[in-house]
Amino acid sequence: MVKGRLPHRIKHLHAQYGDIVRVAPDELSFIDPAAWRDIYPKNFLRPNEYKDQPPGKTAANLIACTETEHVRFRKVLAPGFSERYVMEQESIIQGYIDQLINKINGRIAREAEAEGKGTGKTTLDVVEWINYVAFDIIGDLTWGSSFGCLDGLTYHPWIQTVSQFKTALAVAATKFYPIVNRGLMAITPPSALKDVMEMWKVTEQKVRQRVERGGMERPDFVSIILAAAAAASKDGGDGGKGESMTQEEMEVNAMMIVAAGSESVTTVLAGVINYLLRNPEKLATLTHEIRATFRAESEITGAALKNCSYLNAVLNEGMRLCPTIPDSMRRLVPARGAIVCGQALPADTVVSIPPWASYRSRRNFGRPDEFLPERWISPDQEGKDDSKIAFNPFCLGPHNCPGQNLAWLELRLILARLIWGFDMSIPPGVELPSWEEQGIWWFWDKMPTLVSFSQFR
Ligand code: HEM
Predict the structure, then answer these.
(1) Is the pLDDT of residue 188 over 80?
(2) Is residue 119 classed exposed, middle or buried when 0-12, 13-18 and 19+ CB atoms within 10 A define those classes?
């Protein structure tokens, strides 16, 4: 876990031993697709070791909370994740994609000028640039102001702190050895938490400023929480129609949404671009679909992109090959025990599906390591050896991803508009990182991915 190799190791163990592997004395890993139905919709809880309370805060958040709190949080936030609300956010998202495209064009123009040419190209690390746009979008949609990454083409310190997954996972690993964990906590000097405390200060400030500005017309998550609070106070706050959040709950959940909603989009798009560049014929098919479907950039909208079947297939294939949460999604068998894939399991057994192992297994997908978007379009041909029920990129059940509508909108818009505006290629002498070899600390430790962009229009 500390070395970022655990999901890789579990994948090897499944290849060696099959559908069910005992990966620890009390922990079973499943790649049989039937396990999805038996585990996730059943409301099994996350094990305590994986419910991390971020340092410096005590309020519950969507991940570290009781079941009652979880139901309350999801109820308060649900309107903000609805398809209707996400459609209201589209113009904000398009604005950041405009900025991304303008910045790439600006760089191309500067390099062309420097070289004395009329048109030119530029090389960018797509991991970094997609991260900029993804963080700016989710900051704006959460607390009404972006991180300014695209303005300065640099990460905000908040992002650098919240993305320290390696440290967070090393601390989580010590929870398996309570004495070590207590010892570590006892000797950790307050100065070690300086960056985290600074991150909370920024979070508090952003949420406070948004609350002070007030107004529930702007389509962001603080609006949604304020609307819930207003309904709760009308309701007497009795837990009837009105459910609400405290100020600190608002801050920790806002942080959670920003972290979950940015890393995930960056992973899928960086992965998809990497695979498209390695498979030029697939890139050509996608490029043809986008450039033949639309006559003008202004026609590229979320609603129109839903009908672009190859684009949707490419994104599904990206989520299969580069799952945003590649590590096992662990859950605890409840006190009454449970049956998973026909196995009767006692209370407190940790059960999980590891997406990385499951989506790359020949048991569930034909030609599992190939980038084959066609499998999602022709289930009877390229997809004939696939088990579609084995693929749940947003998980299932009460702890599934609430951000699916927003995720699809961002993924479709960013990829389609990049394809519309630019020809992308592997720069001479550059080798793209091999996705499979990257480390995993909850999320992929994404290596820089240098891509050459030249203006198509
Ligand atoms: C490609 C995009 C995305 C994918 C593939 C994805 C996938 C997932 C998955 C698999 C989980 C469940 C994790 C587990 O059970 O351990 C999850 C949880 C979550 N996701 Fe996403 N996600 C994406 C985008 C987003 C976005 C854009 C947002 C926010 C705006 C978001 C917010 C969340 C939150 C808050 C949770 C925790 C839910 C809970 O525990 O109740 N995700 N996501």
Answers:
(1) no
(2) exposed
